[in-house]
Amino acid sequence: MQGVWTPDQVRGAEQRLFARTPEPVVMRRAAYAVAGQCARALSDQTGGVAGRRVALLVGAGNNGGDALWAGAFLRRRGVGVTAVLLVPEKTHAAGLEGLRRAGGRAVPAEGANADTSGIGAEASDAVERADLVIDGIVGLSARGPLRPTAAELVRRVLVPIVAVDLPSGVDPMTGAVEGPAVTADLTVTFGGLKPCHVLGTGAVHSGEVTVAGIGITEELPAPEVSLLDAAEVGEEWPIPGPADDKYSTGVVGIAAGSATYPGAAVLATGAAVQATAGMVRYAGPAADDVRSRWPEVVATGSVGDAGRVQAWAVGPGIGLGASGREVLRFVLESGRPVCADADSITILSDDETTWDSRDPDAPLVLTPHAGEFARLAGEGPGMDRVAAAREVAARYDAFLLLKGNTTVIAAPDGRVLVNDARQAWPATAGSGDVLTGLIGALLATGIEPLRACGYAAHVHSLAAELAAHGATGDGPRSEAGAPIGASALLAAVPHAIRAVRDAALPS
Ligand SMILES: NC(=O)C1=CN([C@@H]2O[C@H](COP(=O)(O)OP(=O)(O)OC[C@H]3O[C@@H](n4cnc5c(N)ncnc54)[C@H](OP(=O)(O)O)[C@@H]3O)[C@@H](O)[C@H]2O)[C@@H](O)CC1
Ligand SMILES: Nc1ncnc2c1ncn2[C@@H]1O[C@H](COP(=O)(O)OP(=O)(O)O)[C@@H](O)[C@H]1O
Ligand SMILES: [K+]
């Protein structure tokens, strides 16, 4: 698992590091890493390093200091470096001195011969003639979007941008982008990933992210948030062993669908059928539809007749009426782990008494989208989706999977996993039903709920990606991709599982 640390955690680690290693040494290590990545980018893009031009956008703090020192290192490799100072009087003095000693120059952003936007002629020229721009406007201490002068300079950049620590204008803690912000091709960060690199829009603005150790990593506490990679999901994905049979690999019950919405039942059940080798039982009014699409499913008309299961997935398409409420009560009382989605979240939100049916010893997973989250929590998740998911998970003593481009999964004990879909192909009707079936099947195998949700979310978004790019058939993979429906996503689930399992093979 890859860790993600909050700005406060990183600052704490930085202070511990400074007790051993002087701050200027740490800053130069950071800057050296930035310079190395910039040299690589220049070389990839222009075929060389010496003789190329780099502009530094330098803000008022240490982030600007990093950029200035990186400029000094690049200058020593023959790069022409101009620093554009956004707040000249607050520029990092040692960094500026270092750049000048190395032969670089510095100009104020709002200097002489300013144009109508207030940008000085030299600053304008530096940005427009650069082969690469380094964003040292603001880092961990950022608040809010880019201020007007910085925003105007960034708007003029037509070449790749390397961001120092994080793309300026993105909120470090939440990844929120509420106005002008840098969109970096590459971000060089220090010690470990921060939330802005992996959450929502911030992840898009960060581009490729490289973590430079610089001595901080050893000082970091347990991460606030974790990310799963494909190999980890593949390694742990449950497959049958020689001693297994259809029961030992987990029997999941799916309580979904209705006469009006049989599709929800077919999608959730199909996902469970394909996720694991175990048995799938379906209970509900769509039994005929389910049987005809998935003959391997043992289907009955009601949850009471379903037989024994090791976990339940409940909710999609069950409706908000009396029968849906009865079904939900039945599975909550069963003592089995439950994944409650869609209508069951709405029922739990508007009828407090439903909670009384819950067996407090059985894990409960809730999988709301933003609207269902607002119903459940009384307000929407807001910008800090990690904090919101964590708070509601603790409040209900449940595992909370908050859907979206970045899916946030919080355990009641505060652990958080995130899955970044990287693209938005899963945003299609019925796609959540597929996710519910995947989670249910994984819970039935006995996988810990936080991980079950993480593995399911990972395979779900990968399946959407593979389907959208046509990577599941015999034809060539399309670079651009095309929209898909939930049926295509569902059909791609085995391809996604194979892909993560292949990623786990020793290389
Ligand atoms: N931690 C580590 O491991 C290491 C950290 N290092 C580096 O230090 C960086 C943190 O530096 P830092 O704390 O000096 O502040 P930084 O982010 O440069 O901001 C400076 C000032 O900018 C302002 N400002 C705020 N918002 C703004 C906006 N939207 N647009 C424009 N300006 C804005 C605000 O001042 P204000 O104008 O509000 O008074 C703020 O105080 C970190 O990201 C990394 O690069 C490495 O050197 C070594 C290892
Ligand atoms: N913009 C997006 N990018 C990536 N994934 C998304 C996006 N929007 C939604 N999703 C994913 O698609 C699924 C939608 O689930 P849900 O809203 O329950 O749909 P439905 O009820 O139609 O099945 C979730 O897994 C969610 O994380
Ligand atoms: K930055």
Describe the structure.
This protein is of the alpha/beta class. The protein has two domains: 2-227, 3-Layer(aba) Sandwich (Rossmann fold), CATH 3.40.50; 230-469, UDP-N-acetylmuramoyl-L-alanine:D-glutamate ligase (3-Layer(aba) Sandwich), CATH 3.40.1190.20. The protein is 41% helix and 15% strand. The chain has 19 helices and 18 strands. The chain has helices at 7-18, 23-46, 62-76, 93-101, 121-129, 148-155, 195-198, 200-206, 230-236, 262-275, 287-293, 322-333, 343-350, 370-377, 385-396, 431-444, 449-468, 486-491, 493-503, and strands at 2-4, 53-58, 80-85, 105-108, 132-136, 161-164, 186-190, 208-212, 225-227, 252-255, 280-283, 298-300, 311-314, 338-340, 364-366, 399-402, 406-410, 416-420. Helix 10 links the parallel strand 10 (252-255) and strand 11 (280-283). Helix 3 (62-76) packs parallel to helix 4, helix 10 (262-275) crosses helix 11 and helix 10 (262-275) crosses helix 16 (431-444). It is elongated, with a radius of gyration of 26 Å. The two termini are 19 Å apart. Adenosine-5'-diphosphate binds at residues 342, 369, 403-405, 407, 421, 424, 426-427, 429-433, 435, 460.
